[in-house]
Amino acid sequence: MAALGVTGPLPDPEAVGIVGIVGAGTIGASWTAWFLARGCRVLAYDIAPGFFDRLREHVKATWPALQRTGVATIEVDCALKRLAEAGTIEAAVRDADVVQESAPERLDLKRDILAEIDANLSPNRIVASSTSGFGVSQLQSSMRHPQRLVIGHPFNPPHLIPLVEVVGGGLTSEDAIQWALKFYVAIGKKPIRVRKEIPGHLANRLQAALWREAVYLVAEDIASVADVDAAIAFGPGLRWAIMGPHLVAALAGGANGMTHYLDHLGGVVEEWWGDLGTPHLTDQVRTKLIAGAAEEIMGRSMAELTQRRDDLLIGILSLLEQRRF
Ligand SMILES: NC(=O)c1ccc[n+]([C@@H]2O[C@H](COP(=O)([O-])OP(=O)(O)OC[C@H]3O[C@@H](n4cnc5c(N)ncnc54)[C@H](O)[C@@H]3O)[C@@H](O)[C@H]2O)c1
Hints:
This protein has 325 residues and is α/β, with parallel strands linked by helices. The protein is 51% helix and 12% strand. The model has no long low-confidence stretch (mean pLDDT 95). Bound molecules: nicotinamide-adenine-dinucleotide. Nicotinamide-adenine-dinucleotide binds next to helix 1, helix 5 and strand 6.
């Protein structure tokens, strides 16, 4: 049976003025900074006492990065005037043009929160859940208007990584999915559509596939943790910031692109696929991974490494922004 349409006319996805944020932890706070930088007003609700002061501090801390990447063009004090604390879910969503839910990854809790959002938000407004692990169909059961629920799955941190995976469930209307795709484009994100619900959505599955082989190579003593990481960071990882694995393969086929690549190397790659590992995270493998990571980290703190990663990421994003083809 086809899903029902969204009740009533949807707002213009390119003119969203107010975003309701429910759950302002790691992801909700980063979303907040992004929406503010793109000129939206944000009404934020979180159950944790004192969350609003922490949220404001988070926005201030992320602002220099948003300015360096060219996303924020105003000063943070000015942006913070558009951020308001909501004392209840109702207050966060009642006037919102769209709601981005980023509550903890617990099914019962998310269902309750989504039911409350649904009960207080005009039926012609879309609700996007940041969930990494649940399918939309699992989340829709508590809603009276399930047709307006989509997954809008960001990548951490959402104020830097452009990707948003948009997924609909069995009861989501096509209008809601199309609206969400247009909305994320309008606010400067790179949405992709995941056509069917699948555990881990899409990008995390790709990461998991690569990490599975990375663990296998360490478990089988083919290479150290540091060398496996170097193989990606100094090799294919450099290209992957520019183009994905399919286009990389097409380019490897020369003038005849993917056709030649498949004719020439498809068979060899298929043989490798048959040989890829399926390791288990046994105590022995865990010990190897932990020791190998410590050796690679060489005593540097996680904060230092995170800072370095984000600094370089900002450099890459700025470059891609200028040169994207
Ligand atoms: N952390 C990541 O890397 C990542 C990446 C993409 C998506 N996600 C998804 O984003 C969502 C949030 O994850 P997170 O990492 O920000 O978690 P988090 O624990 O940092 O934040 C969750 C926030 O929700 C608040 N909260 C708890 N109960 C609430 C309630 N009843 N009403 C309103 N707020 C409530 C908490 O106080 C907390 O501030 C999850 O669905 C997660 O799967 C996480």
